[in-house]
Specification:
Elements: E1 3-6, E2 15-16, E3 19-20, H1 27-32, E4 35-38, E5 44-49, E6 52-57, H2 68-82, E7 89-94, E8 98-100, H3 105-109, H4 116-133, E9 141-145, E10 148-150, H5 153-159, E11 162-166, E12 170-172, H6 186-193, H7 196-205, E13 209-210, H8 211-216, E14 222-224, H9 229-241, H10 245-258, H11 263-280, H12 285-295
Parallel strand pairs: 6-7, 7-9, 8-10, 9-11, 10-12, 11-14
Antiparallel strand pairs: 1-4, 2-3, 5-6, 12-13
The structure holds acetyl coenzyme *A.
Amino acid sequence: MTLTPVRGGAITNFPAGDRYVKLAASERIQRENPIMVRQDYQTVKLECENGIAWIILNRPEKRNAMSPQMHREMSEILDALEFDPQARVLVLTGAGDAWCAGQDLKLFFRDLDDKPEESARAHQASHYWRWGKLYMYRKPTIAMVNGYCFGGGFTQLVACDFALAAEDAVFGVSEINWGILPGGFVSKALTEALSLRDAVWYTMTGETFDGRTAERMRLVNRAVPRERLREETIALAERLMNLNPEAVRACKQAIKSVRAIPADFAGDYLTAKSAELRFLDAEQGRRQGMSQFLDQKTYRPGFKPYARPMK
Ligand code: ACO
């Protein structure tokens, strides 16, 4: 394993085989130590800086189309980062001028047409990281859409908690253009994020749309000029890192879970989830917040977070 220091303030301990070499213990340690980045993934580049893990799909010559190897590598990376204290927010982006051109038509589809077992494995890995893992990931996730997003790319786009796009990014549910339907999980993911009218329109026509239209449809939170995309992403990540991480995780899981739960059960689920948060929250945010507002009168929770003790 090769570890390369990059500018910043953390030790990032990426897995050697299946396990971590070292694990830094706290946000303070993270800020005071140099970042180390593993270099030996072939289809994904990983950079960790100041708490942000930049996960970069890295097949720019193929517009970051997803090969079976990319699915395996992404599955391993997401598993590893989920419990790495150095990675506090994940940003998913693409190398070059594409975010992700969908599944690799050759490596993921045609080459595996006569290999059912390999194909099944590739499909499993593909679903595992893009939806199984990302949708309920324990840490905040941001899709930073820097260019083309086609077909299968929509699954991880919707699975991420937030999406920021370049205004001139190009999106397309292009399956219809080569005579298939948006399979895998794309159709389901699309209906999570789009109105029925928009989902049907773009799925049935294959028409492309830009980042501004994606923002209008609420497929992405915000579209910004390309030159501001990275700084806007960092600003959002820093905002999230200032918040109680257990509460951020619980909020995400609660909002996403209640979408699928009948109203009769949602109340009970949310009561249980709140109890879980109070039990797991090492910094006791609820008590801190109440005390700082009611007793110390040092802040107004309507406008900003309480001062965190461990920062
Ligand atoms: N699968 C396999 N190879 C791809 C894919 C893909 N999804 N997308 C791009 N490539 C390859 C091209 O074959 C080409 O390879 P080559 O240099 O060996 O010939 C290389 O990437 C560059 O592609 P170009 O078409 O030359 O690049 P350009 O910038 O002009 O266009 C674009 C980019 C629009 C993304 C175009 O490549 C394209 O239409 N790709 C397919 C997009 C798509 O329909 N994806 C959905 C797949 S279906 C699914 O995901 C379920």
